[in-house]
Structure formats: structure tokens, C-alpha cells
Give the backbone structure.
Amino acid sequence: MDLSTTYLGLKLKNPLVPSASPLSKSIGKIKEMEDAGASAIVMYSLFEEQLTHDALELHHYTSTTQDSHAEATSYFPEADDYHLGPEEYLEHIRKAKEAVDIPIIGSLNGSTPGGWTEYAKKIEQAGADALELNIYLLAADLNKTSADIEKIYIDILRSVKSTVSIPVAMKISPYFSSLAGFAKQLDDNGADGLVLFNRFYQPDIDLEALEVIPNVLFSNPQSMRLPLRWIAILYGKIKADMAATSGIHSAEDVLKMMMVGANVTQIFAALHMFGTGHIKSLLNDIEDWMEKHEYESIEQMRGSMSHKSVANPAAFERANYMKALTTFK
Amino acid sequence: MDRKKVTIDGNEAAAYVAYNLNEVCAIYPITPSSNMGEWCDAWSAAKRKNLWGVIPTVSELQSEGGASGAVHGALQSGALTTTFTASQGLLLMIPNMFKIAGELTSTVFHVSARSIAAQALSIFGDHSDVMAVRSTGFAMFASNSIQEVMDFACIAQAATLESRIPFLHFFDGFRTSHEVMKIEQLSNDDMLKMIDYDLVIAHRKRALTPDNPVMRGTAQNPDVYFQGRETVNKYYDACPDIVQKQMDKFAGITGRQYKLFDYVGDPEAERVIVMMGSGAETAHETIEYLTEKKEKVGLIKVRLYRPFSNKHLMEALPPTVKSIAVLDRTKEPGSAGEPLYLDVVNAVTETYNNGDLKLHSFPKITGGRYGLSSKEFSPAMVISLFDEMKNERPKNHFTIGIIDDVTNTSIPWDPRLSIEPEETFRGKFYGLGADGTVGANKNSIKIIGEETDFFAQGYFVYDSKKSGSTTTSHLRFGPRPIRSTYLINNPKFVACHQQVFLEKMDILEDAVNGATFLLNTQISKDKVWESLPEKIQKDIIKKNIKFYIIDAYKVANETGMGVRINSIMQTCFFAISNILPRDKAIESIKKAIKKTYGNKGEKIVQMNFDSVDKTLENLFEVEVPANVTSSLQFLPPVSGNAPEFVKQLTSRLIDGKGDFVPVSLMPADGTYPVGTAAWEKRNIGLEVPIWEQSICIQCNKCVIVCPHAAIRAKVYDEALLKDAPATFQSMKFKGKEIGEGHAYTIQVAVEDCTGCGICVEICPAKNKKETRLKALNLGEQLPIRVQERENLEFFLNLPEIDRNKLNHSNIKESQFLQPLFEYSGACSGCGETPYVKLASQLFGDRMLVANATGCSSIYGGNLPTTPWAKNKDGKGPAWSNSLFEDNAEFGFGFRLAIDSHNENAKQLLAKLAGEVGEDLANEIINAEQKDEPAIYEQRERVEILKKKLMDMKSDEAKQLLSIADYLVKKSVWIMGGDGWAYDIGYGGLDHVLASGKNVNVLVLDTEVYSNTGGQMSKSTPRGAVAKFAAAGKPMPKKDLAMLAVSYGNIYVARVAMGASDTQTVRAFMEAEAYDGPSLIIAYSHCIAHGIDMMKGMSNQKAAVESGHWPLFRFNPELAAQGQNPFKLDSKAPKIPLKDYAYMETRYKMLTKSHPEEAEKLMKLAQEDVNGRWKMYEGLVEEYEKISKNGNGDGALKQAAAVIKSKI
């Protein structure tokens, strides 16, 4: 049975790729995931803004109290050097590459035009096999049109593509007025892959304290419906590979994503809940299912349930809603 | 050989040599020497090697006593060992110094000489400390300048190895230790040439080793001790020549020739001054000036003070000398004269007696004191002294630099006289501690030192407040060597980095004609003139001053610099002063920025670069009008309503005119009135809380957390509002506790508020329409300053509510109690002072405070104004600071005296019962005084008793009257920080706690030595970065609370106001009520944690929620009642330790400097937390069992039995 797939030009032994998450912060965990059968690892994201913030914060708290009192000319011992740049991240990629045989995909969240290209280059030099641009942008500015927002993505993609030679995937959110059209733009501008979709933090409100509280919501199995639809729609219409992410917890979820046309599935919440060993059970379950249903390879099923391959493609579009409505009646 | 020029301060110069020439440094932080140890620690942490390829070990001990013990041990074990100290620290080393010298052990102690605490503590420089160790047998070697510090540190090391006599190398605290100067750095080669390695080996060979065992440190009897003591004579006799030999060798290497007694001046001088220390530089400069005018004057600089060589001194004196004045920078009350004076008198006399006097005549010799506690010593004083020496009978035992109108010792001088050469640039820069002015000036001096051939000097003066402190930087540079070891009093350049200073400081008063004035202001070029006070305008016009402005905060804001205007003001300075070509200056500033901030990443460097680039376009010259247009006057230092003492003395100190306060105005024994801080309106809060009463829920939480008692709540009769100022705010009091008809007001003392915002942060009441608004919001101070001044006065005059009507254990009600600790100079947002203030509210009117040296003694007791206050009845905390190390014992002494007076009074009362009335006597004697109302009743009874006693004539009545007040319960509070409680004072604290006496100990635990700049204590938690723990503290924090709990009969509480104010107040009440020793350990957030101080209370909460700081109370009284005495007041940890720790720079920076170590230590620290929590839970269970079955063994049961027997 052949579970292999290709993603971003990389030949992968199966479609299970742990997504960018804190799990990849430990080389031990990366090895565990490889041992459990992961076919590639997307590293946790390098956040340029975080690096800048950390540097500013350190500077602020160590310098504002300096030379302000006769008895205390400073309050902290100064180190000759601080690990404030991406070195730690790059070193981690190097170590990960040494530790495992599967491809390592870097993940980057820049905050300045220079940051995107500079860090992308460094991640490539550190040995990453591919790069995922984790564009985390909430379009909350009332003075920006959708075209303005899309341009930001395109500009970033183009500048990074012109800087590195490794494949580049774009991880985007579903919040575009014309997602299909935008996917095509990314495709036209050289994206080697699309990762669908980024999940934004969803703030909550504390009624007692009257405060906004940041809230990390893990994906649930229903979350997969959104990427499932869009991958189905886009499959075969763009050149870029597609990675499905959000709510992929079971073997069935993986199979469904393959059938709508994804090249790989990115998983995190399930690993967080069940441990890295979950990859192994997923693989076993996938094999069992394929055996039972007499599939020979993943390639065989890929796209078989996509928009262009199903009997009623409209089911992926508005008709779906109509049907639901009818059923309800 | 062309040596490297460096621009450094005296401490760094000493540390540089000491580090290179030693293998072990055992130290303890004390101002102004702390930086020497810190430099060595930083170099050791960076794995820098010494001259012989060894990375010296730097170890922080628990006290200077401990440090000197460790030095002694390391020396006896053959390591080249040093230490750095000053003042009381040096005194604590005396016992070991006798031993080290007695055993002829080679070492150099580097001392930044500082005043000894006498009538008051002082952190500043004089020779009182080093003069106090004259008899130890250490050689004493004085450096007068930064260059000499480096040179003499090396010569001393060479001399100690050869002579075997230990050396105390000293230089003036602050004036030399902190002055920045361009000097020539000794190279490794120089030092290697100076140190004879065979002597190092000889030192090692004298080590104690089991491979060649000997014993040292025997006990000797009357038969031989004396002879044994005399064995060292020949070593001391040889020492001066050895030092001179090493000086000559040094001259051969570096070209700088020193003598044991260096003479400068006319070879035929008739009047000669003898002195040592930095003042000799000023004298040297003055003598050069006077000899140019053909005055026959000279100076002897004493280098080697011990062993004192009469021969070398006499050789140095010009034979023509007729009058010698010896200047001592110390005071020995009751002596025949100060030490150096007596030594000189003796040298001349002894030489004469021996028939060896080569002088033309026997000179007049006078002695006097100067420069105590860094008192200015200027050329004008030197000139006046030389004038005095012309007299037939010059004044002896004189003072110079002060006005002594009591014993008339002082010699007058002209404070305006200046002899500074025209070509020397002199700049004065006024800044705030937090705005980076000093740092920028240090950088400027370095740039000028490194980029030009100029000599350069920088000296920095800080005021004694920890919040809103003003700094004044004094910068000199020029083509001639700079020997001006005094402040600039005729600047050519004046920079005012904060316009608010112009409200009260006459900063152009001493500017020279044609000077340049740079002002940082947010007012535009066209309008700024109008904003200046009349006097400033006058000076600008009269002195033809060039006036420039910059809106540095605008530039800082635009470039992300926040409140740091350092690079901006520095750029302005270079741009205006033309010291360097502008492009060259900017290039150098950028180079310095890169060097200073390079380790913090490109972003920080770029941000500073941007601010430099943006500065010039915002720098303007202001066209000075021909006429004065302003009528603005400087604010008076204190209001006209101030008490006489404050008007006469305190106001002059506030006004910066303390140098001219005569002796007669000073209290003779260090006793001062309380409550003076209320008269110093500092107006440092640009934004202050503004009360929105429509939203207020009257919880009083803002009041309890305020570090400065600048926000207060009051409940009062509504009828009193009829006289209220128009803008006075009030609302109906919502509580039912004190009946109807009451109004409630939250009043902010806006002129005393530092604007920390803790009250706003803690305020739980939010506007229902717009939740960002609360019942307290920060708003601009200036527009409401005058109205709120009036409102505060009205508020303070409203009657205080009857204390007996309030439940003091209740947060809200406790905060109606008047604070008797107000407006301290603590840091804005201080985490310690809310606890101190709380104690003053609850017990202030019957409280004695013993305060360990540290932050709390500085914000609590540093002149000019102090926060401890009294109530309208004239009652309030009586406060004193003894030392750092003895505070528990000091407070224990209070208790002994009070108990003795109380017992004595009871006995006398019993005797006099018939006369004063049996009932009254019995009631007083038997009063339990368990709570506030009962104490109040006792106070009333004692007042009646005192009235009766006044009419009685017997001796016993008189005696009783003198101690009758001790029949009212007194509350002894022993306060201090963790440096005291966990380290230097722990032995004493432990003893006092074990005594069973009724004292209350409050440990203000910041987990680090805050006052001296963040050195590690045994309270520092594992994984936190502190000085001497640059790679994170590897060991866990000491559980001081559990050590005390282990006694069983000590009330112990661990509190954190930000986590539970209720538990905090309860703990204070219970501790005070407990008739035995009590210990409260209070989590105190601190600027040394690297946090947003406005959110300090949130950090406290997180500390508790993470389990780092579990709250508990251990009350032995409960055990006596058969209840569980151990009560855990916080819940099991609910957030990981790192979620709390990484809110704070002290932990987080380790993840940036030593990421792997950070991860490892955080894991261990989490295990510490888990383990401790389990242990506490286990203790709760165990105590439960013991208290239930009553069959438990051990301390608790015994303690319970003792307590039962007491009740």
C-alpha cells in the first residue's frame, strides 16, 4: 500500500505533517513524531514581532533604571551577548535537520518587509527544506480595501520568492471576499503551496472583570469542514499544492482531505490531546480503511471527491445550503 | 610604549587591576564600593582570565564579616585574594584584618573610602572608615585620582607580596570611585613586569596544606604573646623602602614616578599643606595657580600612610617651610587632633628631638578637617587656608568648607572664586534619573576621551530620592590635565533636560558670560521665552547666553525611544558645543550607541540611530529678546505654613543650599522632627489619578496600595461640606458602620503623588458605558495642581474618624485610619511602602520602628525630608536606624527597655496606689490592652494618672511620671529588607525570634539587594538573574518562614498584598496582637525585578497563583486553643511558575542570555514550587492531627503548653 504523497516538491512517505506548534520546540518531540510516522515537520513560527518586542522589553527594563540613583548605578548584570535575534530558531532548525531524516519546513511570521526576506533567507540557510509563510493579519483597518490587504500578501510572497530558492507555502485565513480568486493570485505569483487555513485567536470577554481575554481555542472535528470545502473547490484549478489544517483528528478526516485534493494534512490539536503516538494510530487506521476499501495508494484517491470530480459539484457551493434548508423543512 | 587610553571610573580602575592580579574575590555589596565586585563578577561570568590565565572566582558572602573571613581562609590556603568594601563594611572586617596582618599575609583590600554612620549614615566619601582601621597592621596606601587608583592598585600588589604586609588601598568614595576620567590603562605586560612571580610562589608556599602541615592561629599566654607581637617590627620597618622601590620600578615601566610623600609647589615654600585623597588634586591645581603668582606655597601628598615613615616625610618637606597645615578628611571627637595631623606633629617633633631636623626653623603645625561626607573642597578653600597660614597664630583644629558658628572652628572662603583655566570646557547637565542623562554624559566623556587628545572628566550628582530623582552631571575637558576634584560652579554650557526644573531651580545662576543654554521643552521656539521664569530671562539677557531648544520627547516618541532622551540630548550637546566637527561627532555617537546597545540587538541600535538623525531637524536656536517679559517666580521650597524647623533648616536643604547651613542649625545628636516630607511638594507626577465619584464603589483598595499615601479616603459629617472649596468632590458614604449622614471623599495629594498608577490599576470599579474608564483615571497634574492643593488642605483638616468605631481587620475600614508614613521618596510604584504605611495606620500611634539599613531606611530616613509622621495628638511612630547587620537586636533592645519601664512603672504604681486611687491603679496594672479600644481606655487612664502625679511631690511620683506612658502598650516593629533578614542580619534575627519577646518583624522581601542595585541575596529565587548570579541563581530560595515556624512559638505569616489584601491586614493585626515574636514576610515587587511597576500588584498575584509565594499564617495562639495553627491562605498553584516568572525581566533575561540554563533552572524551580506546596499541605495535615488529638510531640506542643500557661 502506497501512502506516499508529494508536497511543495518534497516526496513524503505519507500525508501526515505535524503543523507549526510548540511541539516542534523540542528536538525530542520532533524525533518522537518522526518515529511515530510523521512525514515532515512544520516548525513552530518565528515571530519577528516577538523578537523585536523581547529586545525592546529587555532594553527598557535594564536601561530605564540605570544611573538614576547614587547607590544603584544599575539593577541587572549585563551580559556580553543576548540571544535576541533568530539565532536560537535557526540553530533549532539546524539541530532538527541533524536529528531527523524527514523534511523540515520552516515557518515565518514577519512584521516588516525587511524582516520577511531577511529571516526567510536565514531559515533557508539553516537548512529548512521548505518555508511556510504564516501570515497573521487581521484586516481591522477601516481604511483598507480588500485589494489593499491582498496586495500585502502578494508583496510578501513575491519578495520572499525572489529571495529564497526553497519552495514557499502560504498559510492564509479564510477571511477573503473572493477566496478562490485570491488563491489564484497567490498561485500566479509563485506560491508553491497553500495551507488552509490559519486560525486566529478568538478573544472572549470576562463579564465579571469587564476585560477582554485572549482565548486559545483548539480546533474541533467540525473545524475541518471549512478547509475541506475550499480544497475541494480549488483542486485541479491551481498549480500550488494544498495542505489542509484545522480539525483533522481522525484517519477519516485525513482520507476526506485527500479525496478533496489536499497533498498533506497538518495536525496539531489531536497530537496535543492524544500525544505524538497518535500519528501511528492514524496511519494504522488509514491503512486499515484503505485495505478494507481496496485503495492502493493515496494518489489514487486524491481529488476524487473534489469539486471537479464529484457528481454534484454544486453541493460544495450554494446548493448545499439549499439542500440543508429543504431537509429541514 | 603607547598604552591604551580608557575613560573609566575609579571603581573600574581598581577592579581592573585587582581582577588581573588575583585568583579569588570574596565580597559583599556596599556603596560606593559595590561596583568593584560587580565588575569582577561580570568579567568572571564572561570567563575573562587574569594575568596568569586563571578565571578568578568571585563569591558574594552574607556580610563583610563573612567576606573577610573567606578572604582570610583563601589567603591561608595560598590563593591571591582580594576584597572590596567601604565604611561599615570595612569595620566589619576589622577582626580578620588584625589576623591577616598578624600572620603577615600578602593581600590588597581596595576601599572606596566612605563616611562612618555616626549621628547619621552617609553614603559619601571621607576617610572615617579607613582611619578606623589604623591599628590593624594593614599598610595604608592612598590614591588621589583615577590614574593613581590603577597605578597604586598594581604597586600595592607588588609591595604586599614583597613586604608580606597586607595593604589597604583606598581612594575617595564617589569623588574618585565614581568620577569618570580618561587615563592610561596598564597593559598585561606592565603588570607582569611589576609582579615578581617568585613572590607569588612564596605566598602559595605559605599555604596551609596537609602535604606539609603546619598550624597557624594558636592561642598564646602571657609568657610569649608580647614577644610574638614584636616579631613583625622588621617587616614594618622595611615596608616603606619596599614601596618606594616598587614605585621606582613602576616609574621605569610607565614613566609615572611616585614618592611615598610627593611634594609639589615652590622648592622654597614657606607654607605647606599635607593631605591625602582626592582633595590633594584640588590643592595641587591651586598650588600651580598660586606658584605662578610667585606665592611660596607647597603641598605634600601622603601616599603611604601606614607604615608612616617620618624619614620620608621630612625628606619631602622643603627646608624653608615655616607653617604646615595638615588636612584630615575625618573626625575623631575628643582626640588631641585628627590622625594625620598628629602623625605630622610627631614626625617633626621626633626628628627635632633626634637632632635631625633639616628645616630652617621649627615650623608651626596646625591641623584641621575638611571634606567630610564628600563635602566640597575647592581651590577657594585652599587659598583661604594658605591665607590663614600667613597669620602669626594660624587657627588650629580648624574646619574648612562649612560654617561653624558654634565652636567657631571654620575658616571662611569665597564660594564664588574660581581658578579654572579658560580653555577648560565646563558643562552642567540637569536631568532626571530615568531620562538617561547620566548615561549619555558618560558616553560623551568617553567619546571626547577617545576621539580627541583632550583630557576629560565626568562627575555625577544624584539627589537622595528614589523616585523622580534629579541628576546633575558635571563634565570637564580640555588640553591640560584635569585635577579639579570639585563641582563645577561656573559652567560654560548648561543643559536642562526637563523644563519642570525651571519651576524651582535657578540653573543659570552660576553660568558664565557668553555661556550656552540648552533646554528640552515641548513649547515651540516662538513661545518658549514666555514660559521662562523672570530670573532665567534676566540671566540669559544679562550674561548674553546663547539659548537653544529641542523637543526631545517628541523625537523620542517618533523614534520609539519612549522616555529615554539620552541619545537625543547628547546629539544636541555635540551639535551646539562644536567640540568635534558635527559629522565626526554623529559618527562617534553612533559608534558609542553600537557599543553600548549592540548586545540588545539591531532594532535598539537602529532606534537610537534614528533618534540621533532626527534630532538636528528639531534643534533650534531661540532669538533672545532684549527685555525681560516674565513675572514668573521660582516656587518656594516649602509653604509659609511650615513649622519653624522646616523653614529654617529643611527648606534650605530642599533648595540645594544645604552647604551653607551653619552648625548651629543642626541638631547635635542626630534627632529630627517627624513629618517633614509633607512640606516638600515635589510635583513629580506629570499624570495623577483623578477621582470619578459617580463610579466609585468605596472599596478603598486604591488607598491601601498607594506606595506614597498620596491617595486617601475619609468619612466625615456631611455638614462639614458647607465650607468645602468649589471643586472639592464628595459622595454619600455607603457604609452603615458609623451611622447616617456621612460623606465620603477620595482625595489625591497631587503634588506628592509620583503618578505610578497602581491605584488606577487596582481600581475595580469600571464605567458601565465605557469600560476603559474607572473610578480613578490618570490625568494631567498641572491643570489641577492649584485646585487640588486647596482641596487637599480642606481634606486634611476634616476630622479623622474615631479609630474605635472602625473594624481594623476590614480592608475598607482600615483604610480610613490615618497613615503616619507619607510621601516617602521611594521608587514610583514601590512594593515595600504599602506594607510600611499599613503598619503605620494600624499601630502608628504606639509604634517604635527599628529599621535596617537599606531601601526602607533611605526612603524612610534620608534628608532633606522624611515620611514618618505624627497625628494631631502628637503621637506617631518613633523611628531609628542603627546598622544593616544588627537591626533585629536593635529592636529587641527597644523591647527590653519598654518592658523594663513598664515593669518599673507597675511597681511604682502599686506603691503609689493609695495616693492615686486604688481603683485607678488596679485598672491600669491589670489592663490587658488586647485591642485598640482597650488600649485607648488605658491611655485615658494613664492621662488621669499623669495629671495626678504632676501634683504629687514624692520622688516616686516623679519617677513614675517619667515612665507612666510605658503603661500603655507599645508596639515594637523591626523592619528591613531580605538582604538584612536572610543574609547579614539573619543570625541576630534568629536569636531575637527565639527570645520569645514581643517584637514584630516585617521583612520587605524584594528577593534581592534593592538599595545597592540588585545583588543576589539568599532570598533570590532559583532561576532569577541578579548581580552575582548573572547566569541565574542556581540554588533555591531560603524558606525563612519555615525556619521561624520550626520554633513553634513564633507567629509567622507570608503575605502579598496584591494577592490578598485581606490576608495581609489580618496577618498584621494577628502579629501585633500575638504576645510573642512575630514575623511577617511581605512580597514586595521592585524595580530590580524589571517589571511595569504600575502592574506590580498583578505580579504579586501571579507570584501567589503560581505557588512561588504561597500565603499562610502560623499562629501559635490557635494551637493553644486546640486549633490548627497553620493556615494556608492561598490555593494550590494554578498557573505554571514560568507564566509568573516570565512576566519579569529578572527571569526572562536569562532566556536571552543563557537559554539552556534558563530552561534547566526553570524546571528545577517548578519542582521547588511543587515540592514546597506538598510540604505545606502535609504540614497543614500534620498540625491538624496534633491539634486534634493533643498527643503530638515536639516544639508545637511544648509551645502550646507555654502559651496556655501564659493565657
Remarks:
- Chain B has 42 helices and 36 strands.
- Chain B touches chain A through 64 residues (CB under 8 Å).
- Residues 1202-1207 of chain B have pLDDT under 50 and may be disordered.
- The first strand of chain B starts at residue 5 and ends at 9.
